[in-house]
Amino acid sequence: MVSERGLVKAPWRSQRGSSLAWAAVFMGFVLLPLMGLVGDGARLYYVRNRLDTATQAACESAAWSAGGRIGWQQQGATSFSNNLELFSLAVNTFYQMQPDRAKVPYSASISVVVDNANARLNCTGVATVPLSVNASQRRITITSQASARLRFAR
After folding, report:
1. Which of 37, 81, 145, 150 is deepest in the core (most CB within 10 A)?
2. What is the pTM of this model?
3. What is the pLDDT of residue 145?
4. Residue ranges per domain, the chain?
């Protein structure tokens, strides 16, 4: 291309400013949603760690506190003393281990299954976490399992 003064014009001069438009499109459609996913991923990682800790602590606390110590001391029998007491101890410990649920909103619950044959408790913690980015799936469910063996000390 030749200008009116007889100089050769570069063909890319007519496209000045298009890289700014492409950068804006890239940020709007790619970078901002990825940043939202990073935020959701961090929140899911935080909740998973809290849920694991709370489930393990609840299972250990219930196994330690609800053991039938008198039967063990007198006869050597390993059994749980009271299943209702056992469940309330597990639930109490589970919720005490999650004092900051207001910071990262999620709902959590625990279930306790007694295995008297093996003198074990099997606990399952479940948390439902709302997402902020993904519109098709608003909540993700995280599951944590723990097992605690009934044990005594003389």
Report:
1. 150
2. 0.70
3. 95
4. 16-149
